[in-house]
Amino acid sequence: MAMFSKHLRLSSSFLQRLRLHVTAGNPGRHKLSSRSFTTIEGHRPSIVHKRSLDILHDPWFNKGTAFSMTERDRLDLRGLLPPNVMSTDLQIERFMVDLKRLEVQARDGPSDPNALAKWRILNRLHDRNEVMYYKVLIANIEEYAPVVYTPTVGLVCQNYSGLFRRPRGMYFSAEDRGEMMSMVYNWPADQVDMIVVTDGSRILGLGDLGVQGIGIAIGKLDLYVAAAGINPQRVLPVMIDVGTNNEKLLKDSLYLGLQQHRLDGDDYLSVVDEFMEAVFIRWPNVIVQFEDFQSKWAFKLLQRYRNTYRMFNDDVQGTAGVAIAGLLGAVRAQGRSMIDFPKQKIVVAGAGSAGIGVLNAARKTMARMLGNNEEAFKSAKSQFWVVDAQGLITEGRENIDPDALPFARNLKEMGRQGLREGASLVEVVKQVKPDVLLGLSAVGGLFSKEVLEALKGSTSTRPAIFAMSNPTKNAECTPEEAFSILGENIIFASGSPFSDVDLGNGNVGHCNQGNNMYLFPGIGLGTLLSGARIVSDGMLQAAAECLAAYMSEEEVLQGIIFPSISRIRDITKEVAAAVIKEAVEEDLAEGYHGMDPRELRKLNQDEIAEYVKNHMWSPEYPTLVYKKD
Ligand SMILES: NC(=O)C1=CN([C@@H]2O[C@H](COP(=O)(O)OP(=O)(O)OC[C@H]3O[C@@H](n4cnc5c(N)ncnc54)[C@H](O)[C@@H]3O)[C@@H](O)[C@H]2O)C=CC1
Ligand SMILES: CC(=O)C(=O)O
Ligand SMILES: [Mg+2]
């Protein structure tokens, strides 16, 4: 009955148009124009001879986020779009909101008011012509890394629901449970070398951005291509959308992700487990980099997968390696030998995935230098004071986070130092007089004037300040603040890029960028080319030591402890070679394509470097020829 009346309605509108045509058109010929039929044709399904990404890249067939779930399933689109199916009205509203936003100048700190506009232009080039995009990026890496990576990528993620145009990467959502094994085959590439995956729960220092966090996976993979020469056809950004606890996004009708609170416990784990199983079944040699998972899951997932899959956590392990290299650089910059590292007093602000990762690695490095035994490991603990949102962490802390427990200070000992449970950062700095103040707190301005004034009491000949939180506005202090308060005899590093500081006396205060971008591309490339079964602690240590040794004595004494980003392709090549060497020594290497493990074992240092260089993709147009299937 319902079908019958629908048919009647159609028929009456058809007749009405027919009448209109007859009266308004050529009265003599009474012929229907093809235009009149188009309206009716629109109700019939269109036949499409394409599937998967080819449909999304075809402006005639593409409906973007408006593809229904049935269409997504039938056309192999599942996972290629954010999970929220939108009406056309909402799609248009999302576009208009973004268009109007252009009128309000986008800002990410004072450094570049046009950053978002630059990102849009680069992103459009990325969609049109990958070779040209990477040529532009590599040739201008100093200028555009801050656009495709931190800090602008943070702003991009915050605005991703508006900026989203052509999808890039895959989305696995809580709604896809039971489907992932088939969904992975919707991705068109038979070879994937690198996946960067996030669940969007802690994007840089910006908190839970839900599905919009895909931007960070895309930005990290841009560096994999630009710095490590991973072939862009073989990278896959992934978003695991288990919901969001960001109330603003939950209420936003234009949000692209699942509008539900995050899954937790076994429900959460079952989604990530299914994703890991699916990608390793389709691409057994892939490497999965976990990125920007909240601390609560970062450590657990790392422990869960690291001995089974080729994976690592960039925030925990990549950051640790970069910090170790920086801390050793700071010792050398004092004119001392690296072996003096275990004497450094280090105050760390922030005990999340990054802070705890750094603390564990720094303690192990000290222990190795002190004799590599249990006693050395125990005594190294006394070099660290950890301050989180509740102040100094001691054994007196109630409900202490188990990951922070190994660094909790003894209450009596703290009493003797004039400190107590929960002491403020400024009190800790005043009492400890540290050599190093390292921030991974995500709190912009945490190293206030008061804190920096307190650091003047440091017993170091050249105190080091690492304001490592991202993006720019989350840096614990700026280089200007540090140099103006502490003078020029310091070492300064920040997570996001800042310009060097003109000290006004003809000298320059050098601002280093202490960011895991100096390690993760080389760790990934080295793992890939060695065919290592897992990413071992030894391989990560080798990467960190390589970065630490990269800077010359002269540079380090000038306060330059990290290379300029213009050298990122070169340092990545060296890091990858160090990782391969270690993988071979640990007997983890299973070879890569034509290079079998026996051959790999025979290579000397120079030959490994050559092997790496020869496998790095460079953006050049290939000659294309047509071949019939
Ligand atoms: N430069 C780099 O390469 C990297 C930088 N990061 C940055 O580190 C920051 C933290 O990342 P996660 O550890 O994953 O975050 P998280 O959210 O897990 O940890 C933040 C920690 O800071 C503490 N904190 C908050 N307020 C504080 C305060 N007022 N004083 C002292 N501590 C305070 C919290 O208690 C928590 O322990 C982010 O901004 C991130 O962008 C992370 C990885 C790499
Ligand atoms: C750099 C980075 O991985 C972060 O800020 O989370
Ligand atoms: Mg990160």
Kindly describe this structure.
Helix 20 (about 425-430) runs parallel beside helix 21 (about 450-455) and helix 23 (about 520-530) crosses helix 26. Helices cover about 45% and strands about 10% of the residues. The two termini are about 50 Å apart. By secondary structure, it is α/β, with parallel strands linked by helices. The chain binds 1,4-dihydronicotinamide adenine dinucleotide, pyruvic acid and magnesium ion (MG). Pyruvic acid (PYR) binds next to helix 16. Pyruvic acid (PYR) binds near residues 150, 204, 314, 315 and 495. Keywords: Metal-binding, Mitochondrion, NAD, Oxidoreductase, Transit peptide. It is found in: Mitochondrion. GO terms for molecular function: malate dehydrogenase (decarboxylating) (NAD+) activity; metal ion binding; NAD binding; protein homodimerization activity.
Walk me through the topology:
Elements: H1 2-24, H2 34-41, H3 52-56, H4 69-74, H5 88-101, H6 115-128, H7 130-139, H8 141-148, H9 152-158, H10 160-163, E1 170-173, H11 180-183, E2 194-198, H12 214-228, E3 235-241, H13 247-251, H14 265-282, E4 287-290, H15 295-305, E5 311-313, H16 314-333, E6 346-349, H17 353-369, H18 374-380, E7 384-388, E8 391-392, H19 411-416, H20 425-432, E9 436-439, H21 449-455, E10 464-467, H22 479-486, E11 491-494, E12 501-502, E13 508-509, E14 512-513, H23 520-530, H24 537-550, H25 553-557, H26 568-585, H27 597-602, H28 605-614
Parallel strand pairs: 1-3, 2-3, 2-4, 4-5, 6-7, 6-9, 9-10, 10-11, 11-14
Antiparallel strand pairs: 7-8, 12-13
The structure holds 1,4-dihydronicotinamide adenine dinucleotide, pyruvic acid and magnesium ion.
